[in-house]
# Entry
Amino acid sequence: MNDREAVDILRNESEEFRTLETEHLTLERTLDEMNKRKHLTPEEEMERKTIQKQKLAKKDRMAELLRLKCKG
# Structure
């Protein structure tokens, strides 16, 4: 099974994967909007960094689920 097939299966079978994917996309859109601004306040910059970390954590968990699916 290739990665694309495993992702499709996970989307159908795993509520956790679907939730992570949706949240990751939402965070990505938020970051895109923040990155369009020329200047961010210090608070916004901290928020941006927090969002980046959350996004990465979700991506890492999705990759872990994908690895587990491909193994099994």
User: Anything to note?
Assistant: Residues 66 and 72 are 10 Å apart (CA to CA). The chain has a mean pLDDT of 95. The helical segments are 3-13, 15-36, 42-71. Residues 42-71 form the longest helix (30 residues).
